[in-house]
Amino acid sequence: MLWLLLSLGVYSVRVLFATERLVVDAPPDISLRIQDVVKRLGFTLLIAQATATTAPQAASFGEFGPLLLLVTLMVVSSLLDHINPTLSHSSFIATTLVGLGPVVIKALRLIRSGTLFAIETLIIVAAIGALLIGAAAEAAMVLLLFMIGEQLEFYAANLARRGVTTLMALVPEEALLL
């Protein structure tokens, strides 16, 4: 991605992983082309204004939607197992396919940005492999546990990010050399 931006006439590019920011120093006339490159790579671009520290945003339903949907489908599939095991197996297959959706989308974004092998790729292979050997319930459970793990990781990363931001706010802008 960096070489794409540099080829546009950008002066410098920095990726700040701790704050999840891409800092681009470029002439203003190419900002639309920069935005286009970033969006084509599958990333969301928010143009930052110079502001003070912002309050953490509350989680939206869209953030938890796939996880809640997968939990609901798992519960329904498990209940069906007591009523009709054949229908339950089909339900677990459908649950797995629905759960694979967000994981496949994220894996494709990572592939487009140059990361061919990520945890998402491994989860996709594990779920498809479990379906192929007839373990549909296990495939759905792998996806459910992965999504729960991702949410916990997101929560922990946000806590760490807020801590780093708080510490960075304590750093003085100027220093006096004696």
User: What class do helices, strands and sheet pairing give?
Assistant: mainly alpha
Kindly estimate the percentage of residues that lie in beta strands according to DSSP.
5-15%
Count of individual helical segments: 6
- Overall geometry: elongated
Strand order of the largest sheet: 1-2
Query: Tally of extended strands?
Result: 2
Domain module tally:
2
Name the helicity range: 55-70%
Any low-confidence stretches, pLDDT <50, length ≥5?
Answer: 50-58
Report Rg.
22 Å
Biggest β-sheet description: 2 strands, antiparallel
First-residue to last-residue Cα separation: 43 Å
User: SSE string, helix = H, strand = E?
Assistant: HEEHHHHH
Query: Taking all residues together, what is the mean pLDDT?
Result: 80
Describe this structure in words.
Helix 5 (119-132) packs antiparallel against helix 6 (136-170). It contains six helices and two strands; from the N terminus they run αββααααα. It has two domains: 2-40, no CATH class; 61-169. It has 178 residues and is mainly α.
